[in-house]
TrEMBL record:
This is Crp-like helix-turn-helix domain-containing protein. Residues 208-259 form the HTH crp-type domain. It comes from the Bacteria. It comes from Marininema halotolerans. GO terms for biological process: regulation of DNA-templated transcription. The lineage of its organism: Bacteria, Bacillati, Bacillota, Bacilli, Bacillales. InterPro entries: HTH_CRP, WH-like_DNA-bd_sf, WH_DNA-bd_sf. SUPFAM superfamilies: Winged helix' DNA-binding domain (SSF46785). Gene3D superfamilies: Winged helix-like DNA-binding domain superfamily/Winged helix DNA-binding domain. GO terms for molecular function: DNA binding.
């Protein structure tokens, strides 16, 4: 006897015997065989999608929420902003925001080593981040333990808000070759990262490419609270490290961020691969130019 599902695709099988109907109260219902389907709510479905999204191509990332970060960008010095980036790799799944290294919570002495700063400078940075609500401090016996406020950054779950994914491994590689101030510039770019085109822009959630408002260095200076000269130095350093690509044509400036550093979609698109290839070509060009200089 022929199986009724034989020869059908997975898509056909999924929708086989599903029907919609209206009950006696006029409410729409869905009916499906219990041996091949199960009922879940829309809320459960969305939660599952968020959980799957966290796996994101096998890369570990931290959610960086746009509006809260944008609200403090001008209040942070580049060093303070850089300190946040340097601490993000110590977030762990199910740690409730605690900063952990090798299974142990980070203490101030540990953070001093991470930041490459002395006790006084580190205390000043932590106090500022605490004042802004970015870091929370728990007093455990005679020492402090530190947590990142999930309103700004989270790992293992995401809030219903616009955010950029910052990849931990790639970020850790990058900051090894950057000063803490240059790293701070990277942090300040987060809320201006377009969800699909990878541009830095004033409207990072705009769906129509024709209406994307690209940011110039002058714009970034105003938005981040630094001089144009400072922004130019920082951006050049990020460009040299392959974090960003700066384009200028017919008087129009554009900055593109590497999709392996920042990402916002649930999965890659053809455009993602094109942009990644552009960065690879740029890297090869820099290497060839350096070889010629030698």
């Amino acid at each position: 006897m022929k199986n009724k599902y034989q020869g059908k695709t997975d898509e056909h099988l999924y929708f086989s015997d599903i029907r919609r109907y209206y009950d006696e109260n006029g409410e729409e219902r869905i009916s499906a065989p219990a041996d091949t389907h199960k009922v879940i709510s829309l809320a459960q479905s969305e939660a599952y999608k968020r959980k799957v999204a966290l796996k994101d191509r096998g890369k570990v990332w931290v959610a960086c929420y746009h509006e809260p970060i944008r609200s403090v960008v001008k209040k942070l010095t580049l060093i303070e902003a850089g300190a946040i980036i340097k601490l993000l790799p110590y977030l762990r799944f199910k740690s409730e925001g605690r900063l952990i290294n090798e299974g142990k919570p980070l203490k101030q002495k540990d953070i001093q080593k991470v930041l490459g700063r002395g006790k006084k400078a580190t205390s000043s940075i932590l106090n500022k981040l605490k004042k802004l609500g970015i870091i929370e401090v728990d007093k455990i016996e005679t020492s402090n333990e530190y947590r990142l406020n999930s309103g700004y950054h989270s790992m293992g779950f995401v809030e219903k808000a616009h955010f950029t994914k910052l990849y931990q491994v790639k970020t850790r590689e990058i900051i090894e070759n950057l000063t803490i101030s240059q790293t701070g510039m990277l942090y300040k770019l987060l809320p201006f990262f377009h969800y699909e085109r990878y541009f830095l822009c004033a409207n990072p959630n705009e769906k129509d490419p024709e209406f994307i408002r690209l940011l110039t260095r002058e714009d970034l200076a105003v938005l981040t609270g630094h001089s144009r000269e400072t922004v130019s130095r920082m951006m050049n350093a990020l460009c040299d490290e392959g974090v960003i690509m700066q384009l200028s044509t017919a008087g129009v400036e554009a900055v593109i961020v590497h999709p392996d550093v920042m990402f916002r979609l649930n999965s890659e698109t053809e455009h993602t691969r094109v942009v990644r290839k552009q960065f690879e070509h740029l890297r090869q060009h820099h290497e060839q130019r350096n070889q010629i200089k030698k």
